[in-house]
Amino acid sequence: MLRLLSVLSLLLVPALAQAELKMSPVFGDSMVVQRDKPIHVWGWTTPGTEVNVSMAGHSASGKADQQGRFDVSLDPLSAGGGPQELTIKADETKTFRDVLVGEVWLCSGQSNMAWPVASANDPDLETLGAKFPNIRLISVPQVASQEPLNDFNGKWEVCTPETVRNFSAVGYFFGRQLHQTLDVPIGLIDNAWGGSAAEAWVRRDVLEEAGQYDELIKQWDQNVANYDQEAVTANFQKRMKKWQEDRKGNRPRPPRSPISSNHRPANLYNGVLHPVLGYTIRGAVWYQGESNASRAYQYRDLFPLMIQNWRDEWGQGDFSFYWVQLADFRNEVSEPAGSDWAELREAQTMTMSRLANTGEAVITDLGEAADIHPRNKQDVAKRLARWALAKDYGYEIVFHSPMYQSMEAKGNKVAIKFDHVGGGMDTFDVREPIGFAIAGADKKFVTANAKLAGKDTIEVWSDSVTEPVAVRYAWADNPIANVQNKEGLPLTPFRTDDWPGVTVDKVK
């Protein structure tokens, strides 16, 4: 019976007989609530109960529905003053103390967002200096589910050298930059899960209705239906015994159940997003894509679908959503070739033209060839923060990496024009631009020469291509490229052609 009650407490609709006032742990002592927006407060109590919510002299009331769910919105509050108390009165009364009013951001994605401060560059210095009582942190544990969950084991904590160590490095450095610039409290919600795929962050019915992911969903349903825990465990134990006897090769990895996989469609939407979904935020920062690189063409639609699904469910309009483009990774290659990582970067960039209030931090200069987790999270966070400071807070700073605008072929040369050039196009390390490839109608790319030809123009050519029709830049897993604007933001990788890529037919 106790086990049944424990399971029911996590489901979308709590038991009707439950009289206890229940809240998501995203509401708690030391939390930050979003300034200048209606503050959404929800929970569960006895159906039909009148619920009153109050804070800083403001109050609002609502009534629990037939399932016991209540949703109440407090009038917007300005930052400053406090700390405050947030009180919810229903069958019983809950009071949350040390509540600050400021800016709240969700930090989500896979391992590069989950990557902790303790493993980023200069972890000793970063943790020693993490004394920010007005930055508050909360992490959502990694729980996968096919049913929407409301609960999780987590709580808000004040940012200290001790609490910041295992928090998202990109999230913390992003929040710290905002805090130091805006001089207001910052709340950061980390629900990233290493290795996760984008489809796991989307509601299943949304994927089904899209009609493009039937094969993917079918494959997962088959994997779950055919999974035999006993057989898999027995096989693992057999391999483990042999490895212990021979000590040859790598130690066998424990089996992973497809039921709780962080790739299974909807598992993370339900397990780690849903418990905080609806908490009033300014926006989200996202670092993911590595797990979807082999299906980059599919990501062109999947990624904006995920963002729109979140916005639709959140009920806060088109809140800001900024992501990190994939870093440079794997071995450098000397000749132009196909690349799934380049195609994933392209899909990420395309999303900016699909959805409003989105932005991309380009980091093809910050990666590490032998490590999918580059340690320089500080500069990654700064590039995300530029988007937020410019777009959400009105600072007049350069925030957008240069992007391809148009091309014009004249003889064997192509003039490429760019948008968002800031102070003008520039290079680093060496003066001549590198990273370009050029092709004729035969679609065979060769390394191109290039030169700066004005504030927003680069001229590209190769003596072996007399009639060029297409140009690519930084089109590789680990591109050898050096173009940026004068503010140091790298040129966004691009191609002028739309020829089928290496992932065009990959759907599962």
What is the element layout, followed by pairings?
Layout: H1 2-8, E1 32-34, E2 39-44, E3 50-55, E4 58-63, E5 69-74, E6 84-89, E7 93-109, H2 111-114, H3 123-128, E8 132-139, E9 157-159, H4 169-182, E10 186-190, H5 204-210, H6 214-226, H7 229-246, H8 267-273, E11 283-287, H9 296-314, E12 320-324, H10 340-354, E13 358-361, H11 377-391, E14 403-410, E15 413-419, E16 425-427, E17 436-439, E18 446-447, E19 449-452, E20 457-461, E21 470-473, E22 483-485, E23 494-495
Helix pairs in contact: 4-11, 9-10
Structural features:
single chain; 508 residues; alpha/beta; 11-stranded mixed sheet; 4-stranded antiparallel sheet; 11 helices; 23 strands
Q: What is the terminal-to-terminal distance? A: 40 Å
Low-confidence stretches: 1-18
- The tally of beta strands, per DSSP, is 23
Largest sheet descriptor: 11 strands, mixed
Approximate strand percentage: 15-25%
C-alpha Rg, in Å?
25 Å
- The coarse silhouette is globular
**Content-based structural category:** alpha/beta
The tally of helices reads 11
Estimate the helix proportion, in percent.
10-25%
Mean pLDDT: 95
